[in-house]
Design brief:
The chain is an alpha/beta fold. The protein is built from 12 helices and 10 strands. It has helices at 17-30, 33-43, 45-48, 70-82, 97-108, 125-135, 156-165, 183-195, 206-216, 240-250, 255-258, 261-271; strands spanning 58-64, 87-93, 116-121, 141-147, 167-178, 221-225, 228-230, 277-280, 283-287, 290-296. The chain is globular. Bound molecules: S-adenosylmethionine. Residues 24, 64-67, 71, 93-96, 99, 124-125, 147-149, 152-153 line the site of S-adenosylmethionine (SAM). Monomer.
Amino acid sequence: MSKVTMAYFLNSLVNNDSRYLMCFQLFLERSSEHQCMKDFIHQQLPHILDSVGDGKSDLNVIGVGSGAGEIDLEMLSVLHQKHPGLMVDMEVVDPSSLQLHSYRDLVSKKPDLDYVKFTWNEMTSSEFEERWQLKRSTKKADFIHMIQMLYYVKDPGATISFFQSLLNKNGKLLIILVSGESGWGKLWQSYKDQLCCTDISQCVTTGDIKNLLSTKGVNFHSYELPSQMDISECFIEGDEKGELLLDFLTEVQDFSKTASPELKDGVLDLLRHPDCSVQSNGKVIFNNTLEAIVIEQLN
Ligand SMILES: C[S@@+](CC[C@H](N)C(=O)[O-])C[C@H]1O[C@@H](n2cnc3c(N)ncnc32)[C@H](O)[C@@H]1O
C-alpha cells in the first residue's frame, strides 16, 4: 500500500493586503502596541528630538511604513511642541493604498496640522530609494522613522544605510521593532525557517539590528518598550478572531487551515509556553515587548 504524504503550502500574509489589515487592526485591539509607543513618544522622544532642527527654518521628516498614521501624528505633535515656529515637510512612504487612504482621512480630520506639508509616496522603501537616486536629490532629512516595518524589506541593513545617508547634521533615525527578548523573538528562534517563507517577510528583531549596527561600527541608543498582547482566542479551536491573531503571529495566511498538524501544535504549544507568554486570570498574555533604536548623524 502506498503512503500518501500531504503537502502543506504556506502563503505569506503580506500577499493579502486586506486580510493583513484585518489581522493588524485586531492585533492593535488586543495589544498595548500603540500605547507603549505613545508612552515612548511622550516620555523619551522629546529629549531625542532636542537637537533636531537646531538653527533651521523648516524640518524635513520621512515616515517609512507609516501605516494609517496614528503614530506619525503623535510624533509630529511632539516635534511641533519642541519647535513651534518651524514648518514640517513630511514624506510618507507606504505601499498600501488602504493604509495611505486611512492616513489621509485622519489628517483631514485634524484641524491643527497646518504646519505640515504632506507628500504621499504610495510605494515600498526600495522604490522610494530608487526614485530618490534617479532624481539625484540632495535634500536631507532631520528625522526619519521606520516603525514596525523593517520586517517587510529584502535587506534591512541596506535599507537602514540608505536612510541613514539622508540624515542632516544632528538628524535622527528612529527604528522600532519587536525586541529579541519578546515572545516574537522566541517564536522565531524555533520556527523562523518554517514560518518566514518569503524574502518580504523577515523575522528580524532589534537584537539582529543592534548586532548589525555594532558590526558596522554605527553608534546607537536603545530603549525598551514593554508591551503585551492577549492571545487567549488563539487557543479556541475554530475561533475567527483567534485565527486572525494566529495569522498575524505566524505571518501565514489561514495558518490554522494550511499548516501541518505538527507545525500548528508546535506553534500553539510554544505560544503559551512561559518563554513567550504568562497565564493571568485565565488569559494567555504574550510578551510583545518592543525596542526603539535611535541612530544620530553627528556631522
Ligand atoms: C505593522 S504596519 C506598521 C504601521 C505603523 N508604522 C504603525 O506602527 O502603526 C507595517 C507597515 O509597513 C508597510 N510596508 C510593508 N512593506 C513595506 C515596504 N517594503 N516599504 C515601506 N513600507 C512597507 C505596510 O503597508 C504597513 O503599513
